[in-house]
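Appendix B: a complete holo record

For completeness, this appendix reproduces one full record from the ligand-bound portion of the collection. The bound molecule is LCNOYBR7. The inputs are the chain sequence and the ligand SMILES; the output is the full three-dimensional arrangement of the complex, encoded as structure tokens. No fields have been trimmed.
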Amino acid sequence: MPLLGCIADDFTGATDLAAMLVAHGMTTIQVIGVPTTPLPEADAIVVALKSRTAPAAEAVADSLAACDALLAAGAKQIFFKYCSTFDSTDAGNIGPVADALLHRLQSGFALACPAFPANSRSVFHGHLFVGTSLLSESGMERHPLTPMRDPNLVRVLSRQTEGGVGLIPFATVEEGGAAIRQAINRLRDGGRRYAIADAVTEAHLHALGAAVANHALVTGGSGLAMGLPQNFRDAGLLPDRHDADALPEPRGAMAVLAGSCSRATLGQIGLARDHVPTLELDALATPDAAALQRQAEDWLEAGPLSEKRPVVIAASAAPEKVAALQARLGRDAAGSLVETALAGIARTLLARGVARLVVAGGETSGAVVQALGVDRLRIGPQIDPGVPWTYAEPAGIHLALKSGNFGARDFFLRAFA
Ligand SMILES: Nc1ncnc2c1ncn2[C@@H]1O[C@H](COP(=O)(O)OP(=O)(O)OP(=O)(O)O)[C@@H](O)[C@H]1O
Ligand SMILES: O=C(O)[C@@H](O)C(=O)CO
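The structure of the chain with LCNOYBR7 bound, as generated:
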């Protein structure tokens, strides 16, 4: 039975959390969508939903269904994973989902902390920073679906819940376990439902993790999960594991499929272009999914696939080109055109012997995973913080799902090293 049951609000975010748990000694399986079959055996199960930007009622219903499945399987604690940039709007979905989970778990209080120092997300005096920029000056203020214009997470979460939101400030977190527990008790006794916790270093996240050992619900980015496996070890429930990230031997041809248009992904494509065969599809010039897929198939016909180095197929484009296609077709239609093309290309790649595939972008990953009929991912070693290799079943391939903003510039090359 799983010790930790997790609910993630998107696919790459789920993989990020799962990687954190594996790196800290828990075997972890990511299940795609609300579970409809018995859950597999692992120390932690991460249910990957697409609930970040769904209507709040749908996000709540899916999250509760996932929670019920995890509890029925025996999970002792529930972790609700959202983005390290707290992606949400005043309508949700972090507040409404957390409220519903607390209610289902008959609990009255949860910690909330998206800090992830390895990827430069820190929380200080309740304000979220991306690198040295406030969240609201990090580019996230222009996010098409969840623009983050207020960096003060106490205010942001307060607008999404009727429960009171307090703060566990830096000085308290820095003092460690006893001080954090006292602060939690004070806030809970004072009627607060949530506490945003400051965290700048991994030591802070470990201290926070230890302080919530007995909480029914913990909410945050993957960083906050790094302290949780030790709680289960301390309770004698989790053996010391040195092979939690073991995966079957990799084999087969290698490919990268990119649909993310983030600055990080564009940089990764730029570097890969100079080193490995790279096909850049132009969705603006050819706004037709079937035609784009045919272009990729024609390109593959010449035989660039190899077991020695990857090929890269990218639909990613600079912001002006993305905006132009969106203006012509509408934002959703532009996105799904490209997603349909990349999903079709993923099927073609597998049919041509690709068995090691990196996919860049959360929505893109969702489309590819669906097209390949993948329903669970066994989590392996990390390539870069937040992006592990996984073994996808029943497809039987190695798959890495990269969040748009994650990964160093040489990610597409180093992933296969
Ligand atoms: N050339 C393009 N023009 C318009 N839309 C595009 C183009 N290329 C990709 N897209 C779409 O942009 C969206 C990118 O979203 P996706 O979630 O995959 O990446 P991301 O937002 O960078 O990643 P994450 O969600 O992990 O942060 C997808 O819907 C994709 O189909
Ligand atoms: O927390 C993060 O930044 C990522 O796991 C993510 O959720 C990106 O969509």
